[in-house]
Amino acid sequence: MEEEPPHLFLCPISMELMDDPVTVSTGVTYDRRSIERWIFGCGRTTCPATMQSLANLDLTPNHTLKRVIGSWLDRGSPSTSASASPSASSLSSPAHELATPLSRILEAERLRSALAGLDETPFKVTALKNMRACMAGDVAMQCEFVSSGGIQAAGRVMAQALAESGAGGDFSAFTACEEAAAVLALLPLADAASVGLLLAPEHMRPLMALLQRGSAEARLHAMDIVTKISNAGAGDWTARVEVDDVLKSLLELLADEVSARLSSRALDVLLDVVELSRVGPTKAVEVGAVHVLVELLANADDRHDAERILLLLKRLCKCPEGRTAFAEHDLSVAAVAKTMLRVSELATQLAVKVLWLVSVVAPSEKVLEDMVLTGAVAKLLGLLHVESPPATKQKTVRMVRINGVFWRQYPCFPTDLRDYLRLLD
């Protein structure tokens, strides 16, 4: 029985095997004779399969598909012997140039066709799920997706879904946004071109919305994308986004404590934003970063999390607004003091730097009082008796000397430590 040709070998108009496949501006491939009759004979300017307007009337030959069809036809020819060794002439033929298996080429063609119709199809979630399954763990298909305009197509779906949900539409439309993010999260996003596409405002806004109100899985996918953007090394990526929106989304994610994995990645990106953006520290303080970080530090069990939180607090306390926000929080000094001589050597160094900024650079009576009541001063004095980096020890001695007179006045301050303070004067 004669084998039926694969569906992708058939012209979408005539449903016959294509003799001269050509691709139109929407990415769909037709037989030249059929599409020419559609465009030039009938005077239409739309793509028959998607009904999208054609950006131009160019017909680009699809040489790859033509060679695959030719190979398929040759395989079914009686003169073709399965056991025959390929001759020198057959090795140089276009059909033999195809190093990619037929099924792979068909998958790529199917992916391109799905992308071409993604904007118009009412079944976006299903289409995106199929793309996700096709691309998972397949670098070649991921590259095909990017080169075929997949990032832009997925971005349009996300922007449309966000607009519909924001306009009071059915929130189920947001599922398409989540599925599009799941597809984008599969990509390596290591090149500047891909990162540049995602940094467009119409793409970043849906990502930030997913971080704030997406499902747990969608938040993880969105965080994966943002982390890859941050790690891509594409210069100051924060200059191309609304820093306030990014900071708010990251802090909301940290405050919700959805998962340890999400929190860890959010801390990494937050560090990057605060370091790269000139206005990052000030903006972070304005949207409540100090409060969120202090609360996290008070309950932090992981050493790496504690160290990154302390590093963020140190950077934020370098600006006056950060020091004010730190002084206003009742748990700030206690949370920082708890990490000294307990979590790690790095955590102790960072804790000392934070306390230095709030007790020497710009001291407040409340902070100095809290340092006595929470045991921070006792820990500073204890730090003088253990081996520590010179810079840390110098800051510790300076803090004690500058603020010793204030601390000695408290009746609760131990007598032996009061005598030790006198020795340092």
TrEMBL record:
Substrates-to-products reaction catalysed: S-ubiquitinyl-[E2 ubiquitin-conjugating enzyme]-L-cysteine + [acceptor protein]-L-lysine = [E2 ubiquitin-conjugating enzyme]-L-cysteine + N(6)-ubiquitinyl-[acceptor protein]-L-lysine
Residue ranges occupied by any U-box domain in the UniProt entry: 4-79
Pfam families, per the entry: ARM_PUB, U-box
The UniProt record lists the keyword ATP-binding: no
Provenance organism: Zea mays
GO BP term (any one): protein ubiquitination
Keywords: Ligase, Transferase, Ubl conjugation pathway
Listed SMART domains: Ubox
Name of the molecule in the record: U-box domain-containing protein
MF GO annotations: ligase activity; ubiquitin protein ligase activity
